[in-house]
C-alpha cells in the first residue's frame, strides 16, 4: 500500500466521522476505509446510540432502527458523494449501505467512476 493511499483512506474516515457528527448528531466510535480498485469500502463501528441499542432487543425495534438509520443516511447520500469526489477527485457513481443492529456496525460502499487504486499506484 502506498503512503498516499493510506493517507487518503485516513482522510476519508476522518471526514466521514465529521459529517456524521454534523449531520446525524454523533459520530462513529471507529471508522476504517479501504480503497479497492474502483470501490471505497467504509466500516463504521459503534454507531448506535444507547436508546437505539435498547430498541434492538425486539424485532420490531430492530427493524425500526434499521429503517430510520437507512432513511437518515440515504437523505445525506448526495452530500457523501460530493465529499468523496472532493477528497479523491473521482466521481462516486453509486452508494450502498447496510447496518447491523446486532453489532452496531455500518458498511458503506461507494462505486467510483474510475479505478482509484490504480490511479494512486501510478
TrEMBL record:
It holds the Pfam family MpsC. It comes from the Bacteria. Residues 5-113 form the Na+-translocating membrane potential-generating system MpsC domain. InterPro entries: MpsC. This is DUF2294 domain-containing protein. The lineage of its organism: Bacteria, Bacillati, Bacillota, Bacilli, Bacillales.
Amino acid at each position: 500500500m502506498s503512503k498516499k493511499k493510506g493517507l487518503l483512506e485516513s482522510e476519508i474516515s476522518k471526514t466521514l466521522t465529521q459529517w456524521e457528527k454534523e449531520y446525524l448528531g454523533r459520530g462513529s466510535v471507529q471508522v476504517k476505509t479501504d480503497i479497492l480498485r474502483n470501490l471505497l469500502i467504509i466500516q463504521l463501528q459503534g454507531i448506535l446510540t444507547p436508546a437505539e441499542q435498547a430498541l434492538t432487543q425486539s424485532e420490531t425495534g430492530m427493524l425500526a432502527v434499521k429503517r430510520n438509520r437507512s432513511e437518515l443516511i440515504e437523505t445525506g447520500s448526495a452530500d457523501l458523494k460530493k465529499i468523496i469526489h472532493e477528497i479523491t477527485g473521482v466521481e462516486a457513481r453509486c452508494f450502498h449501505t447496510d447496518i447491523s443492529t446486532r453489532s452496531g456496525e455500518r458498511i458503506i460502499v461507494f462505486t467510483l467512476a474510475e479505478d482509484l487504486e490504480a490511479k494512486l499506484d501510478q
